[in-house]
Amino acid sequence: EAQVTQNPRYLITVTGKKLTVTCSQNMNHEYMSWYRQDPGLGLRQIYYSMNVEVTDKGDVPEGYKVSRKEKRNFPLILESPSPNQTSLYFCASSLDAGTSTGELFFGEGSRLTVL
Amino acid sequence: AQSVSQHNHHVILSEAASLELGCNYSYGGTVNLFWYVQYPGQHLQLLLKYFSGDPLVKGIKGFEAEFIKSKFSFNLRKPSVQWSDTAEYFCAVNTGGFKTIFGAGTRLFVKA
Questions:
Q1: Is A45 in contact with B99 (Cβ distance < 8 A)?
Q2: Phi/psi class of residue A109: alpha, beta or left (left: φ > 0; alpha: ψ in -120 to 50)?
Q3: Which end of chain A is more exposed for a tag (fewer CB within 10 A), N or C?
């Protein structure tokens, strides 16, 4: 089954404790992206990756890091989480985000709470 | 900067009522337009999309949207909503690059 898998789905952590949210897709998509969803703000892009070893900042990259060492994986790293990073995070992938196949496929979401 | 505006943040309808959700974007060039739906507790999934051709596009579950280039709009419609349409709806725009910009979302609640 074609899917985007995120882990963990739920996480409560404390300020400053490094964490990683994993994302994996099995559709051989070149493009992957992270979004955060906050009430009234919709989805805001954090980082995206056009292909292996190619990443770029989205609209809200502060406090986050990413890496793309393999095509299928795109982890989101919070080196020193802060309470303002409490949010619902979605990973998405697409065959090619810049063409007619730019439909995004989303993971189930990871709800993160930073105390 | 490019942006997407959704006119209504919350909409409450009774079953069988007609639905229209507004979406406007700010970009003067070629765009790819999407509506995504997020059912309670679930991830976003594609409802319909427009790339070119007929400006009236049909999606899943009886939804349709009309692209009006002169108005920079891509409104979502459904003639008769059902309780199962209760969800949050997001309009999104891709301008041919690597960024898809989402609106703030519209929460639809359908009363049985």
A1: yes
A2: left
A3: N
